[in-house]
Design a protein that fits this description.
The complex is a heterodimer of chains A (304) and B (335). Chain A has 12 helices and 2 strands; from the N terminus they run ααααββαααααααα. Chain A is an all-alpha fold and 304 residues long. In chain B, strands 1-2 form a two-stranded antiparallel sheet. Classes of the chains: A mainly alpha (304), B mainly alpha (335).
Chain lengths: 304, 335
């Protein structure tokens, strides 16, 4: 029973971080109807930024978030003005392959600069510490902090989207770009802003994840696919949807571990042959497929 | 008879195109006579394989306009069927290849039926998801060698073995794949003038209009998807015999799927010559860049950076690819 509760907790915590990963993707999709394959690569860059800043300056990894956010924001805007703007003129195939090209570019640039070995953080106030909540539930402090900070970032973005003038302008651009242009909203700049926010939230999530996950240049694709699944489940373009779907996907990734634990505890021979944890992410893809086919709008989506 | 006549009829192309195509075909046939390195030979075989993959993708992605980014799963199904059958039961290539096609087509029907309810981005990402699910399964499935993959050891057989397609020299593989390549061109030439081909193009232009004209859109897409799958699976089987060492990572990864789609798009999706031009540009570029910059200069990943830049440039400036540029020039000349 402890294990069940414990894996539920772990799932919820990782889910909150994953929700932040998906947030950027859902905003970009909502505002400009383009699927960003390079999203995981933004996250990877955030992880490297967090790691290198922490190592170079010696500050705690948790305080590198503003640096990572700034880098991501700048990167998003550069990508928009330098590349995405031109791709948007073409057909959908060009957009898909264009952002895929961006992904390959960023990934291999990272490979060229940082090399292919895994790197991880070894210092920091929270690294290696954990809380015990009783009932055998142990929560690593890094994950708890990451989850808390992602929720904070999420709330900040939600407030920005719903309570400010800029957020209203973004929503208007998402609903009807032409109408928004007639109302005097600079839609071009709004698109760039969406890419900035998208990139920034991804890199912040990356700087949080690097506290408990080692980084290499190829880490991005997994997160891109998870983010796609979350966005599909929550509904393309829906911010609260992304949060709840993130929690669900977090649980999906943790339950196979629980399943394996059960099969070892009760010695079900047939279940021990293939550990379910090796299918951990397959269930995410299966969930994506099933949701897409049966409810293409997702749980909270408004774009068809 | 009518079908064969249609497949051999290239008369709707301008004479210049046919002259160039004939010259290229002749060069391909006499290619092995030149004294060339084995590296050039394997690059050429890669080119022919990817041209065939691209032609398969072109049916659904080019003529039909459905962006499929999950073709690698069928490469995997074809390759694994052939390899498993050869290693476990010593079944020759010519039997296992059609069986592989059957498996691949069956799987394409199973996932194609729900998949084609989706459109655009949703369809593209869902094809990636199915491909990754299959790859994950193959990575833990002991029967097919899990993540280590399978290895066909040529020592057990007596090359040249025409039944099992096990050879020591690349030249045999070259002529086999060249044969498939010409057959593929004839098939696509027939396909683009067939009923299904016209139906697909009308679906691409306007789906609602096509439906109102009485075309069963869903079924037409599924059928074409199965044709594309068949193409890819045949080459996948060949891949198993040629490479002799298959792993989930290099037969079913997302990179392969994207490369297939990219090639058709670079050359010009929705035209007969597009995928061939695309493969002819990308494959030599990729393998020579890797050889010169990656292996010799020690810059890891720089080949893929240049390659990514090409993708980005093409998608930003000329999404219709090389064939689009050629047609634009022609139109300007005529006007």
């Amino acid at each position: 029973m402890d294990i069940l509760v414990s894996s539920l907790f772990a799932g919820l915590l990782i889910g909150m971080v994953l929700a932040l990963v998906a947030l950027g993707l859902t905003i970009i999709f909502g505002v400009m109807d383009i699927v960003n394959f390079a999203h995981g690569e933004f996250l990877m860059i955030g992880m490297y930024t967090g790691l290198l800043t922490a190592q170079a300056t010696g500050v705690d990894p948790l305080f590198t978030l503003p640096v990572a956010g700034a880098v991501g924001f700048a990167l998003g805007i550069i990508c928009y003005y330098g590349f995405i703007k031109f791709v948007m003129r073409g057909p959908m195939v060009a957009q898909l392959l264009g952002t895929f090209g961006l992904m390959l570019f960023l990934r291999n640039l990272a490979l060229l600069i940082f090399g292919s070995e895994d790197r991880s953080l070894h210092h920091g106030v929270l690294v290696g510490k954990s809380f015990e909540l009783g009932m055998g539930i142990i929560i690593p402090a890094t994950k708890l902090a990451a989850a808390g900070l992602s929720v904070a970032a999420f709330v900040a973005v939600w407030l920005l989207m719903n309570r400010t003038k800029v957020g209203k302008a973004l929503t208007a651009t998402a609903l009807n770009p032409q109408g928004a242009r007639y109302m005097g909203i600079p839609t071009e700049r709004m698109n760039a802003l969406a890419w900035g926010i998208g990139g920034g939230s991804a890199t912040i999530a990356g700087a949080l994840i690097v506290n408990f996950w080692s980084v290499n240049p190829f880490v991005g694709l997994l997160f891109t696919m998870i983010a796609f699944a979350i966005v599909a489940l929550g509904g393309f373009g829906s911010v609260p949807g992304a949060f709840f779907a993130g929690l669900v996907v977090g649980l999906i990734t943790e339950i196979p571990g629980f399943w394996d634990f059960m099969s070892y505890t009760f010695e079900f021979e047939w279940m021990m042959d293939v550990p379910m944890t090796s299918f951990k992410y397959m269930w995410v893809y299966v969930a994506y497929f099933v949701i897409m086919v049966f409810r293409p709008r997702g749980l909270f989506g408004w774009k068809q | 008879m009518e079908t064969i006549k249609n497949a051999l009829d290239f008369s709707d192309f301008p004479r210049l195109d046919l002259t160039v195509a004939g010259a290229v075909a002749l060069c391909l046939i006499i290619f092995p006579l030149f004294p060339l390195s084995s590296f050039a030979m394997s690059t050429m075989i890669q080119f022919l394989m990817f041209a065939l993959y691209g032609m398969g993708w072109n049916t659904i992605g080019g003529y039909g306009g459905q962006v499929d980014l999950g073709k690698a799963q069928y490469v995997g199904i074809g390759a694994y069927t052939t390899a498993v059958m050869l290693i476990r039961w010593d079944i020759p290539f010519w039997v296992s290849m059609p069986i592989g096609v059957c498996f691949a087509v069956t799987w394409s029907f199973i996932i194609g039926y729900p998949l084609f309810r989706l459109k655009g981005h949703y369809f593209a990402i869902a094809t990636i998801a199915t491909s990754l699910v299959l790859k994950d399964i193959f990575e833990v499935w002991e029967f097919v060698g899990a993540a280590r993959g399978l290895e066909i050891s040529p020592i057990k057989y007596h090359p040249p073995d025409f039944l099992r397609l096990i050879f020591r020299e690349d030249i045999y593989y070259f002529y086999f794949i060249l044969g498939f390549f010409f057959l593929g061109i004839l098939y696509i030439n027939w396909f683009r003038k067939s009923r299904l081909g016209y139906q697909l193009r009308s679906i691409k232009d306007n789906e609602d209009m096509a439906r109102s004209l009485g075309i069963n859109v869903h079924w037409a897409k599924i059928k074409t998807y199965a044709i594309a799958t068949g193409f890819v699976s045949v080459v996948g089987s060949f891949h198993a015999c040629y490479i002799k060492n298959i792993e989930p990572e290099d037969t079913m990864s997302l990179d392969i799927s994207i490369l297939i789609a990219l090639m058709a798009m670079l050359g010009g999706a929705g035209s007969l010559w597009g995928p061939i031009i695309g493969a002819g540009i990308l494959i030599p570029l990729k393998s020579y860049l890797k050889e010169w910059l990656g292996a010799q200069a020690g810059l890891v990943g720089i080949d893929l950076i240049l390659y990514a830049l090409i993708i980005m440039l093409i998608s930003a400036y000329e999404p219709r690819g090389v064939w689009g540029i050629i047609e634009k020039i022609r139109r300007r000349k005529r006007a």
